[in-house]
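Exercise: predict the structure of this protein bound to adenosine monophosphate.
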Amino acid sequence: MNVLLYGIQGSGKSTQGKLLARHLHLPYLSTGHIFRDMAKEGSREGRYIKETLAAGLLVPDEITIPIVEKYLSRIEYKKGWILDGFPRTISQAEKFKTKIDVAFYLLVSDKEALWRLSFRMGPKGEIREDETLMAIRKRIDLFHKVTEPVLEYYRKRDLLVEISGEKKIEEICEDLIGKIRWYQKGNGNKG
Ligand code: AMP
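Solution:
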């Protein structure tokens, strides 16, 4: 089962991705996590990614696509995966040739997401460099401009399933699992 997860920052997609991965015994992969780790490296590429993330901009396709392909070619991703954060642009979606079973869109309003993110701090009360109010606004803005067309791309292919992200964590997870079970029973793409 190859699953894509979409939602604006603060929609809870990484929480749900990890829960889903545990329930389905599938690996969870987040391009955001990969890039945040790379941003800690002292290399030229690491420094470049750090700056890109801090500005709330997207990492170029020439870097992003080979990284995702390299990960997904590993043995542990053979039976399927939960992918969070990719494809994020139409060009990424077009270049990504792997079969997808379902793309979930976690629906949360911008207002609710901003409200949630304003409470998301590190253990010492620090905020992430890419979660300053300016960077968050930029990322939400980019989601609407750049990623919404990707949702349309999957909707046209009958792969998009919208799920309310404004419920309790467990309820959202049940909704997602329910849909996946339904797909696994061979009910095709619609529903
Ligand atoms: P996320 O945690 O998914 O919001 O990702 C954090 C940051 O990583 C984004 O703001 C981008 O700078 C970068 N990033 C993650 N996924 C992608 C992608 N598919 N394409 C380009 N940049 C990405």
